[in-house]
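Q: I'm writing up a methods section and want to include an example of the input and output format. Could you take the sequence below and give the corresponding predicted structure tokens, formatted cleanly so I can copy it straight into the document?
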Amino acid sequence: MSAAPHPTPPPPDAAPALPTGAPAPRATGLPRAVWALVAALYVVLFPYHPGLRSPNELCRLWQTRALVEDGTLDINQALRDYGPVGDLSVMNGKYYPSKAPLLSFAAVPVYAALRAVGGGHRYAVPEVPLVFFSRLFLTVLPTLGLLWLVRRFLRAFLSPLVADGVTVTYALGSLAFSYSLLFMSHQTTAVLLFAGFYALWRLARGEWRDRGYVVAGACAGATVAAEYTGALGVLGLILYACLTLLGTPDPWAVRLRKLGRATGLAVLGALPFIAALMLYHQATFGHPLETGYKHLNDAAYQPWHLGGFLGIRTPDPRAFTLSFFSPLRGLFTLSPFLLLALPGLGLLQRQGRTSPEARALFWMSAVTLAGYTYFTSSFTYDSWGWTTGPRHLTGLVPFLLLPAGLVLERLRGAGRPALSGMAAMLCSASVLMTGLATFINYIPDDVSTPVLALARPLLLGGYHPPNLLAFGGLPTALAGAVLFAALLAVAACVFLALGRDASGHGASPRAWAAGLATLAVLGGAQAAFTRNDRADQNAVRFLESVWLQPPDRPSPAFWPHAGS
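A: Here is the clean output for your methods example:
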């Protein structure tokens, strides 16, 4: 087997060094049409159903309404004006979202602009456009920007084709897709964490000036203001910064001086967000360190957040197993390509023996994985709710991409077409499985599997994901077919690209056979766990009853006129 990719890569704009003796791969990545399809799926899809009263999203947006309409942090008036929502905390008779507040405040300019367009009065902005544009500007577009950073980072270590294939798989075959299309903080956390890491990485390579530490600190502070558990990822960034600053050949006095300067600049960047968060806690819950989870309105949820730190206790084997391998929402079940990251960490550790950069990347990735694993294993599994996958692991996923890519690169250069075909199909299957689950994106926690038990009967019954094409007048069946064809096309392109060998030749018959066998195994596993029992059938019927764009009926207006 040939050597792993060069441990100390060139700048991101240059082609990465290749394993010694390996034939040079084609210098081009995926076609622009693939990137266009990815962007179109992100922008056009709108999995939302007002009848579900999505609590995690609406509690934030009700606070946005309150900030603009009433100038208050509490949402009492908003609840009277726009209806009840869940995920609330109560303090002295005033109701607030139980979540960290960043997204509520970030949506204020979006809501203010929509309000001006709608006529400037209290009821000017209907719920559907409010949710759509808040997602578009605060979760969808930032993730599309993140894909550019991920691709640029990966291309410094991997061939363009593998880097692009992994980036596209991340875009449509991971939790990034699911939570970009929800107004929740999980993908926001991933965007901020990776943006902070990217700044530290460029600083470590000497490509940015020291003021980049202010950017990294701001991303870290904003992460905690968006999602409290994002602090787990911030710890990984701190470790990476320390390793890169202290792992240089400079005298220790110089290293410590650089570390002190970097720490000061990072604190300067983080301080506005942390100070604002503490002031928010003081104003709403009476103490700078008191969060809404200690004042939940629904007493049934309170036990999940008691004990330990924010409900994080000692590990539970059941929570660990289900978070990673549950047929309903396991991380490796919906995104099997992430399994490649486990041997990939071994490759990265091996490179770290001779490369300080690879060593820092390995320890950051390994510690971040360990931290999130401890969290998901120690928190109540039953608290995930109606979600796609283990939502609190969304911030972890970007840090598993390089290890997964190293395995793909190694297999391509080693002349192992069967293993390469299997790995390529893991990526393609991730796009299909997570993509179809994201078409639904509100997965009841009592169904057996997300694709065969839920997505399949809904799609076959004509219940296609709500989307802009149908709002524009296209029949829902045709709009759904277009979206499914786009997802299928991207999945096929991913396999065809990653199934090539290092010389650029297409997937061999052995690669195809191994890939199709892998797909059959994954599909068979889903079929084996699909019950099609009463719980599955009830979930399908319930979602049909609240579907925003049901079949055989005209699509409702995207922005209905007042009184309609």
